[in-house]
Amino acid sequence: MSNTGIAKNPSAPQVDPAVIAKLRTIAVALLSDQLHRNCGSTGLVPYHSPAPMVGTAVTVKTRGGDNLAILRAYDFCRPGDVMVVDAGGDISNALVGGIMTLAAASLRLAGMVLDGAIRDVAEIRQRTFPVYARGVTHRGPYKDGPGAINVPITVGGMPVNAGDIVVGDQDGLLAFPPSLAATVIEKALAQEQKEHGTIDSIREGRWDRAFVDALEARCAN
Q1: DSSP per position, 47-96
Q2: pLDDT tens digits for 107-140?
Q3: Residues facing residue 92 across a β-bridge
Q4: What distance separates the 2 farthest-apart alpha carbons in the chain?
Q5: Which pLDDT score, from 0 to 100, does residue 147 have?
Q6: CA neighbours within 13 Å on the CB side: how many for 115?
Q7: What's the burial of 137, exposed, middle or buried (CB within 10 Å: 0-12/13-18/19+)?
Q8: In the predicted model, is pLDDT for residue 4 greater than 60?
Q9: For the segment 96-107, what is each residue's pLDDT rounded down to a tens digit?
């Protein structure tokens, strides 16, 4: 990242709308299980009224508490994109608040993910527009730069590349390449059906817990 200005790169192609529509119906936990349960962010939480989020990543790298690159990144976002911002987890100053999240919603972004702080939380909580962040502070942002748009970033320990699929719900966030979507969806739907069967057996008083014996037998201690 240069010492001055904003490094700008073109946005990646958007994910197939049919894939996006299918992912909106699947819980993030189910998707995560198909990616070995070791992907996804930690420490970022939803601040909006509950609503699922799925879209194509437009990534932003910025200095903690500075939103100049975020302001420029709106020009690179299309309806259905998720702006994903790496501010290094700094929560000293808010990156965005009520106005900038409203602007994102008006541009029909699918959501905003910020590894940094936000403010105007009471206002944001009243909306269904997805906003994920690491923390909250009343202290406003600087607008000095530097920054970069559509570069590899990390948010909450989760690598995100421009063009990745980003999904979120009340359990958290997950990002993965579009090339994995078909396999992840297929396996997640199969697991969902299996879990429905387990739920039915619990409700009907016939839950078979014999599998616990095998799990216990393999314990090392």
Answers
A1: -SSS--EEEEEEEEEE-TTB-HHHHHHGGG--TTEEEEEE-TT--SSEEE
A2: 999 999 999 999 999 999 999 999 999 999 999 9
A3: none
A4: 65
A5: 98
A6: 24
A7: middle
A8: no
A9: 999 999 999 999
Interatomic CA distance for residues 30 and 198, integer angstroms: 15
User: What pLDDT does 38 receive?
Assistant: 83
pTM of the model: 0.94
Cα–Cα dist 64/178, whole Å:
29
Instruction: Specify whether the CB–CB gap between 129 and 101 falls below 8 A.
Output: yes
pLDDT score at 95? 98
Specify the DSSP class assigned to residue 142. B
- The mean pLDDT of 141-165, rounded to a whole number, is 97
201 alpha-carbon distance from chain centroid: 33
Strands 53-62, 165-169: pairing is: antiparallel
Instruction: Give me the mean pLDDT over the 156-177 stretch.
Output: 97
Q: How many Å apart are CA 93 and CA 22, to the nearest integer?
A: 37
Amino acid at 219: C
Residue 53, both tokens: 């989020």
Q: How far apart are the first and last CA of the chain?
A: 49
Spatial separation of the C-alpha atoms in residues 3 and 1, rounded to whole Å = 7
- Give CA–CA dist 82/27, Å, rounded: 18
CA distance linking residue 20 with residue 165, whole number of Å: 8
- Tokens representing 152 are 């590899």
